[in-house]
Amino acid sequence: MTSLHSQFLATHTVADVLSEKKQGHDLIDIQVTATVETVFETLLANADILSVPVYRKFNNRKDYVAIIDAFDLLSTLEEQGLSSGSAKGLNTEFLSMPVAILVGMTKSSSKLWTCQPSISLTQLIELFTKHRVHRILVLEDIPVRTDQADTEENAAIELEQQARKPSAGRLISQTDVIRYLLEHNHELGPILDISADSFAGHALKYAEEYLDEATASKLKRTPVSITIQSQAWDALQKMSTSHATCVAIVDSDGALVAEMSAADLRGINPNRIEDLHRPVLVYLKTCQGSLKKPLSCRAKFSLGQLMSGVVRNHGHRSWLVDSEDRPVGCITLSDILSVFLG
């Protein structure tokens, strides 16, 4: 017998999610000739986005080639000398180079991940979790005229319409899907009652394409962390070497105080590279304006509670903590979605 949540995912589509999504602004994108620094600045200026589609102009249309996100920026820093002991060893000339150098820095940007509005949520979640993709470009079909379409006049009109219409429409993110599922929680059944300690690191079961088994197992057992005495530079190096998307920042007792992710690189420019040598909490306060308490949960929190927490707080993860607030796991949006696949 098919479960309620499986039935729901199979019978609802990307179009259903987008129809209920509040669109605060038009799609923010950048041309492939823009500089890398422009990407950092664009992400900083638009705090609600973590990625931007990159396009080439072709016949007055936008031909999208990739989606660049904060993890591509982190990978670029790694290429330019992140492994050195100091930001002074970092080659900052890449910031003035075309954004094309970022394409392919990570698996998610090595190809343009797209989908049709008609695919099911089951298929969409498989794309998200099995390919470590966080956002996908939803293609829009360009209507074809059927009446007298062979006349020169109508052919010219159709070409003009296509020239004015972008070749893609909107981004759909993991957060969009989780928000949609939460709004339809009464249709999902008992899956929402499972406990948080049963699915921390759940998405790592699909990690064989980009992580070796030992690294994936270590990430699942022990979340990556640094102490409050560490520099922001140390956090970036930890993320780079451990293939983690974020690090927990803990006090002398090991209790969770803050977190740092690749998203905290937004706004980096040649003048701010040295800021990475500041203590990590000072750096985060400079970036964020104030130190934000990271989302956390206990072992017996339910999946439904966790989904509600990340949506309400615009979070991208929740740290699984013990009775002393020490992080013992990290539950990402990919983990949450992968639970629905079994």
UniProtKB/TrEMBL annotation:
<dbReference type="InterPro" id="IPR046342">
    <property type="entry name" value="CBS_dom_sf"/>
</dbReference>
<feature type="domain" description="CBS">
    <location>
        <begin position="292"/>
        <end position="341"/>
    </location>
</feature>
<keyword id="KW-0129">CBS domain</keyword>
<keyword id="KW-0677">Repeat</keyword>
<protein>
    <recommendedName>
        <fullName>CBS domain-containing protein</fullName>
    </recommendedName>
</protein>
<dbReference type="InterPro" id="IPR050511">
    <property type="entry name" value="AMPK_gamma/SDS23_families"/>
</dbReference>
<dbReference type="Pfam" id="PF00571">
    <property type="entry name" value="CBS"/>
</dbReference>
<dbReference type="InterPro" id="IPR000644">
    <property type="entry name" value="CBS_dom"/>
</dbReference>
